[in-house]
Amino acid sequence: MGPVFNFKQYQAYAAGQGLWSPSGTVTPTKKTQNGSAGSGGLTNGIGIGNSWEEGQHLLLNGRGEVDKVRGNPQVPRRMPEPLPYAAQALGTAMIFVALHLFLKQYFSPDLLLHPGFFSMGFAGKWGYLVMAGICYRCSFFFIWGVAEAAVILSGFGFSGWSNAVPSRPDWSRAENVSPIKCEVTSSLAQMPAYWNIGVGVWLRTYVYDRITPRSGKPTMWTLILTQVVCAFWHGLHPGHYLFFVNAAIGQHTSKPPSY
Do 107 and 145 form a contact (C-beta atoms < 8 A)? Predict the structure, then answer.
């Protein structure tokens, strides 16, 4: 269904604490070595494709500040009205579902097994595959956009205030995909930062970092084992494992060399 998140986040949200307190006061938490605030029970997500670390709901930024802009004293602020931001996320999702329905008429993945596809030349097949991939990804952009709008509307997507002047509310907690960056990124190694962001954070924290030797650096096998876990998450179909193992190899080889 969905990824997992620490249950204490929901407890703080339901109790109106931290970012969601009526006074807007945030209680900074003491971080552990892995960057999360203590340890809490895990619970299944609701199929929205997002995951968050415990303690993020109590911190406006990575430094535990309430609202510090260029050295100004901390100024507690209440969460703003989420409706306009939820409407913006939903509107963006509607654009992607419209684009998906339009492209599907001409570049449906179902036509990849049609005899007409095999009669195309190399350039025709390549172009069709590119457009079919965009069409397919638009469906993910849509559903994750709807989920983002729902999380924002509930108030759970509020992440605090930016350090810009003037300070603006940050709703990035609910963001699970960056569509434009997904399409224009020049490196496969950058994709986890833009695609299924919540799951990527979860895999990095609970799988990748834990199987990396303390005295050494992560290797390609570290990445492959992480992707095997991701494949198992998706199911038992052999195609999942073939895809994710190849993705791990592609991500590893596309990393810039270290000297």
Answer: no
15-19, 188-192, 235-239: which has the minimum mean pLDDT?
Answer: 15-19
Residues contacting 67, CB < 8 A, separation 6+: 60, 74, 75, 76, 77, 160, 161, 167
Catalytic residues: 234
Place of tokens 């596809």: 117
Residue 96 has pLDDT above 50, yes or no: yes
CB burial of residue 178 (10 Å; 0-12, 13-18, 19+): middle
Encoded amino acid at 214, one letter:
R
What residue has token string 């095997």?
228
Predicted confidence at residue 4, as pLDDT, reads 44
Q: Looking at residue 141, what is its pLDDT? A: 96
Q: Domain ranges in the chain?
A: 1-76, 83-151, 178-259
Q: What is the pLDDT of residues 19-63, one digit of tens each?
A: 777 766 444 333 333 333 333 333 333 344 454 444 443 333 333
pTM more than 0.85: no
